[in-house]
Write a structure and sequence with these properties.
- The chain is mainly beta.
- The chain is about 0% helix and about 50% strand.
- It has no helices and eleven strands.
- Strands 2, 4, 5, 6, 9, 10 and 11 form a seven-stranded mixed β-sheet that branches. It has a four-stranded antiparallel β-sheet with strand order 1-3-8-7, with no helix packed on it.
- Strand 5 and strand 6 form a beta hairpin.
- The radius of gyration is 14 Å and the shape is globular.
- The N and C termini lie far apart (about 40 Å).
Length: about 130
């Protein structure tokens, strides 16, 4: 069992940057598939970014088209922490951001059903 706690959200102006963190406790996340999702008011939870461990070749990273080139997902296995660096923020990035993890093989990286563990979320608000 792993517990995930997000931090780093806040209120910023359009064009600014934020870095979200997701601290994992209870187990190392080095072999976990990890992801970031977000949910805006009145909308479904949507995929933002994912990082997947590939044997012998490190991590693969995946991004939603809406954030590609602006957001970067990374992790520090020694600190059991997942990050989401968000640059050039737009008002449409406003949402609650959730960290997710899975130690199961398979599943698609962008589906909420592929992840077993979720954090409580952190609010990101971008004013235009």
């Amino acid at each position: 069992q792993v517990q995930l706690v997000e931090s780093g959200g806040g209120l910023v102006q359009a064009g600014a940057s934020l870095r979200l963190s997701c601290a994992a406790s209870g187990r190392s996340i080095s072999n976990y598939n990890m992801g970031w999702f977000r949910q805006a008011p009145g909308k479904e939870r949507e995929f933002v970014a994912a990082i997947r461990r590939v044997l012998w070749s490190g991590d693969n990273r995946y991004y939603a088209d809406s954030v590609k080139g602006r957001f970067t997902i990374s992790r520090d296995n020694a600190k059991s922490t997942l990050y989401l660096q968000m640059n050039s923020l737009k008002s449409e990035d406003t949402a609650v951001y959730y960290c997710a993890g899975s130690n199961r093989a398979g599943g698609t990286y962008d589906a909420t059903e592929s992840y077993s563990y979720w954090g409580q979320g952190t609010q990101v608000t971008v004013s235009s």
